[in-house]
Write a structure and sequence with these properties.
3 helices; 75% helix; protein transport; transmembrane helix; SecG
């Protein structure tokens, strides 16, 4: 039960983080100051941190999927 709740939470966080990334026409990260710094040159610290957080949440999401699969397999 706990891993199912964690999976839902990580899924919602992952959707939010992906929507915050800057795309071709800008993203929600522009609201937090990412637009000005990235237009000057390179990616800003905020964008790099957003990337790191997204990767970590994605790995946690994947781990929850694997654990839930193993639990379902062992319960069968």
């Amino acid at each position: 039960m706990g891993f199912s709740i964690a999976l839902i939470v990580f899924s919602l966080l992952l959707m939010l983080l992906v929507l915050m990334h800057k795309g071709k026409g800008g993203g929600l990260s522009d609201m937090f100051g990412g637009g000005m710094a990235s237009s000057v040159g390179g990616s800003s610290v905020a964008e790099r941190n957003l990337d790191r957080i997204t990767v970590v949440i994605g790995l946690l999401w994947f781990a929850c999927i694997v654990v839930l699969g193993l639990l379902m397999k062992s319960n069968s």
